[in-house]
Specification:
Largest sheet: 6 strands, mixed
Strand order of the largest sheet: 2-1-3-4-5-6
CATH topology: Beta-carbonic Anhydrase, Chain A
Number of strands: 6
Mean pLDDT: 96
Order of helices and strands: HHHEHEHEHHHHHEEE
Low-confidence stretches: none
CATH architecture: 3-Layer(aba) Sandwich
CATH class: Alpha Beta
Helix content: 40-55%
Structural class: alpha/beta
Bound molecules: zinc ion
Number of helices: 10
Strand content: 15-25%
Radius of gyration: 19 Å
């Protein structure tokens, strides 16, 4: 089926099915406004849709998606900060109580850190600078496990990048303040859709713990 026709057909199925079943929920979400308790920073990867993987309902999740689910550090330089704008809205205006950085296995963005950059290529203007946000995670992996298999390196790098994003979240004054007074909680999660596993970062043990 044509990919666009598949989507418009999908909308009709939604309109006549799930929307009808949850009509009252949707009307309340419009009339009373959204009040999600959780915001998620997830990857743009088509295989890792937080609402599907976590079986969320409408209004549950405020979702920010970008390449490799990264959080940049707090910067007020007048440039265009899409992820930071979404975080500001989620925390300052919606007052979510939880921020989850949802990393994932088989991430193309993280894999690109292991590939040699093509100098002068017209198609790498934005991804390499964006991925340089987690170059520290890449260097840590290359420095501590240079002989490990590629899949192990990328998994460790994917998880390490989640921790870099959590650290960067704490550079935002409005996040740091709310974490400090207990209004906001930060979480590092990692999902693998091949093995269908979810791991949650334990800051005390300093490792990702699988969910039963
Ligand atoms: Zn990804």
């Amino acid at each position: 089926m044509d990919p666009i026709a598949k989507l418009t057909a999908g909308f009709r199925v939604f309109r006549d099915g799930r929307f009808q079943e949850q009509r009252a929920t949707y009307e309340a979400l419009v009339d009373q406004g959204q009040k999600p308790k959780v915001a998620i920073i997830a990857c743009s990867d088509s295989r890792v849709d937080p609402a599907i993987v976590l079986q969320a309902d409408p209004g549950d999740l405020f979702i920010v998606r970008n390449v490799a689910n990264l959080v940049p550090p707090y910067e007020r330089d007048g440039h265009y900060h899409g992820t930071s704008a979404a975080l500001e809205y989620a925390v300052q205006h919606l007052e979510v109580g939880h921020l989850i950085v949802l990393g994932h296995a088989h991430c193309g963005g993280i894999r690109s850190l292991f590939e040699k950059p093509v100098q002068g290529s017209a198609d790498n203007h934005f991804v390499p600078p964006w991925m340089s946000l987690v170059r520290s995670a890449f260097l840590r992996v290359e420095g501590t496990m240079p002989d490990a298999p590629e899949d192990v390196k990328t998994r460790v790098c994917e998880q390490s990048a989640v921790l870099v994003s959590l650290e960067n979240l704490m550079t935002f004054p409005f996040i740091r303040q709310r974490v400090g007074d207990g209004r906001l909680h930060l979480h590092g999660w990692y999902v693998d859709i091949r093995s269908c596993t979810l791991q949650i970062y334990d800051p005390i043990q300093q490792h990702f713990e699988p969910v039963d």
